[in-house]
Structure to design on (734 residues):
């Protein structure tokens, strides 16, 4: 059944498991092929942002988000820098505010600063959400506040809708544009019990991704009013994102949006159930304790190398994969990210139960 | 056989023709599907610029171009701005030089200036190539000179290889980096009777495209030494071009590169033959008179609306399409661009002969 090997790396051992608690499955070329199967060969490509395939999808998602217009982008990195730039130009200042662990701050090689000369004010501490109070205490004039729902780097936490609404009212009163980093917006709708449009109406502009919970190949939508999106298209060309053909991403985004949008509730319930199992294990706690989306972090109260060793053995013995990527949190703790997709429901209940009994025991033995 | 309609637009009439003198065929989704057919479903996606599918293709093209390393980009717009930026940073100046009709100057919404604050010096007149003399007379310190082979906006003209070699020697002596806009590099190899590597060794960095003569979906390669490409990857992320998956473009680029790289000679011969036929028509001249690649411009010595009317009738009567996009050149002249691909060879000789006899007659009647 498995080949125990003491020196197997975590990712190698993970890749050999039969079951995986997170994700929608292996990112293989088959994912694209499946999306293309139902499309006629003679269907026309989009051409530099025009054509039926791109325009129809943009309209569909604009409507879903309750916004006037939407633009398809190859990446969220591009879409969000541009969103902030457009608001900065409109308000005549190059300052914005966002969370210290915002994607733009830690994952984009400082594109916002290097390409747009925009200075971000970091709101809140690294390990908690931005609050209304943080926004009210902002001393500097900013063009735009970016809020990420859920705040990925702290396990996917969410403010209550009422606080979000107050932040939105405050920003509108102060003439601050509010931008939504909705990389995982679809994934939080079951918790809020709101439509996407009800969330998005609090924001002036919205970015959503199609390869997180949706599980597409790549691609993003930026939505807002007509002036905003028209301006964003000019910047899209400047960034080199106005490709002659974006249809491989558009067609797959739409295919997996249709396939998985209705399953966000199932993923959310799965995340809550799975987090509970982790929290029953010795020296393991999830962040947040009770997930508010399909994602959460698993915090191990033990050093990375030790947990890695436990997990490799655990994968070999149970055939259940938790993660291929464990990250150091402090010298004596580590963590990983879990996002529930289609794969969780495929694991038989008894396999999960046995596995978590074993994981609890192994973690206890560590101490 | 056809439905004559006086008020049919040029592009509508063109789209109804059975034969087309230019191009590789309709840009439909079938183009991608054909490229994917030979790929196994379980083949792994690239992940943020890593993985077999992207690394192998980058190595293959680096070798083909005779460069140390290569990076796959979603677009040439992104690749070339970044190439110039990397050279500017290395040389400590934000000045470059290129042709007045360079892609960066006229098709990119000034991304180079708006995102990189790079000031281009425009060399040569709009209607001719950059010469060694132009480069020698450059008064300002520049980081990089960009040369486009062939110079698309003037019909795809080329300097002789010996002049190119002298420009390269001059730049090296002066410490100026030389960048090749090789959007159509593959298409000029038959004229030069050189390998791509023999052309590229004159340049410090090279961009090539996979959807011009190659006929892929989209995508570009930027090649150069290791320091250069490593730096370009950082900027690729900043621009939002470091997508989680670029494989739809990579697989199709490789598929059509393998399919059409060997046909560039056939396209070049086709272009020469077709240009000759145009040049036999009254009031029509190609630019250049004898093509040096698969492309040329057709210059009509009559106002755009009149030529449009002639072409619509011509398409309806012959079923042969020349262009769907006629552009004004002066008030009394107009032109279109022709790039020979697979479609030209599919037109029976007698259809072409009859068609051009008719075109000559129609153009004569105009005057």
């Amino acid at each position: 059944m498995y080949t125990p090997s003491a020196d197997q790396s975590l990712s190698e051992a993970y890749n050999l498991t039969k079951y995986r608690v997170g994700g929608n499955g292996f990112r293989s070329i088959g994912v694209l092929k499946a999306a293309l199967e139902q499309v006629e060969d003679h269907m026309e490509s989009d051409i530099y942002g025009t054509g039926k395939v791109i325009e129809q999808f943009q309209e569909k998602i604009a409507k879903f988000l309750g916004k006037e217009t939407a633009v398809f982008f190859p990446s969220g990195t591009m879409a969000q820098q541009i969103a902030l730039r457009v608001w900065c130009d409109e308000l005549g200042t190059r300052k914005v505010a966002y969370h210290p662990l915002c994607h733009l701050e830690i994952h984009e090689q400082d594109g916002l600063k290097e390409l747009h000369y925009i200075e971000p004010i970091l709101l809140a501490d690294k390990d908690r959400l931005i609050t209304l109070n943080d926004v009210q205490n902002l001393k500097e004039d900013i063009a735009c506040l970016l809020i990420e729902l859920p705040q990925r780097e702290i396990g996917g936490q969410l403010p209550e809708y009422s606080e979000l609404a107050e932040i939105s009212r405050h920003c509108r009163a102060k003439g601050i544009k509010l931008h939504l980093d909705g990389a995982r917006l679809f994934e939080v709708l079951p918790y809020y019990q709101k439509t996407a449009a009800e969330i998005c109406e609090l924001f002036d502009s919205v970015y959503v991704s199609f390869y997180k919970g949706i599980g597409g190949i790549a691609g993003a939508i930026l939505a807002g009013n007509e002036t905003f999106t028209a301006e964003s298209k000019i910047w899209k060309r400047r960034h080199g994102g106005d490709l002659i053909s974006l249809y491989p991403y558009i067609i797959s985004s739409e295919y997996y949006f249709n396939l998985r949008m209705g399953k966000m509730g199932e993923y959310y319930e799965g995340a809550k159930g799975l987090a509970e199992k982790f929290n029953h294990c010795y020296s393991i706690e999830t962040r947040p304790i009770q997930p508010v989306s399909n994602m959460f972090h698993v915090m191990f109260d033990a050093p990375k190398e030790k947990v890695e060793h436990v997990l490799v053995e655990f994968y070999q013995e149970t055939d259940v994969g938790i993660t291929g990527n464990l990250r150091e949190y402090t010298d004596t703790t580590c963590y990983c990210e879990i996002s529930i997709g289609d794969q969780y429901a495929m694991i038989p209940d008894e396999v999960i139960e046995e596995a978590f009994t074993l994981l609890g025991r192994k973690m206890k033995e560590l101490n």
Q: What stands out?
A: Chain A touches chain B through 51 residues (CB under 8 Å). The mean pLDDT of chain A is 96. Residues 349-366 of chain A form the longest helix (18 residues).
